[in-house]
């Protein structure tokens, strides 16, 4: 049996944000990866609870919310 491996996600961000994350992670005694996972998990769970829209894609939800009126 192989060991379960969680999927990896790569993304880019500004260097100053990365530096802030590194400091934050160090202050909490975490790895930056663990800190980012915690932040993303909290954001996704908060979005699920605050948004009754069943669409799981927050970018689509933002686009829909930004459309005023009806589309033609």
Descriptive notes:
The chain is mainly alpha-helical. It is built from three helices and no strands. The chain has helices at residues 15-28, 32-50, 58-66. Helix 1 (15-28) packs across helix 2 (32-50). The radius of gyration is 17 Å and the shape is extended.
Annotation field: number of helices: 3
Provide mean pLDDT, rounded: 82
Rg, please?
A: 17 Å
Q: Which sheet architecture does the biggest sheet show?
A: none
Helix content: 55-70%
Oligomer: single chain
End-to-end C-alpha gap = 55 Å
- Poorly predicted sequence stretches spanning 5 or more consecutive residues: none
Count the E strands: 0
Derived from helix and strand composition plus strand pairing, the structural class reads mainly alpha
Sum up the overall morphology in one term: extended
Strand coverage percent? under 5%
Order of helices and strands: HHH
Please supply descriptive tags for the structure shown above.
single chain, 72 residues, mainly alpha
């Amino acid at each position: 049996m192989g060991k379960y491996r969680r999927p990896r996600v790569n993304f880019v961000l500004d260097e100053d944000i990365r530096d802030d994350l590194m400091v934050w992670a160090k202050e909490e005694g975490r790895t930056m990866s663990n800190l980012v996972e915690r932040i993303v998990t909290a954001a996704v769970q908060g979005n699920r609870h605050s948004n009754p829209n069943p669409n799981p894609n927050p970018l689509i939800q933002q686009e829909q919310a930004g459309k005023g009126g009806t589309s033609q």
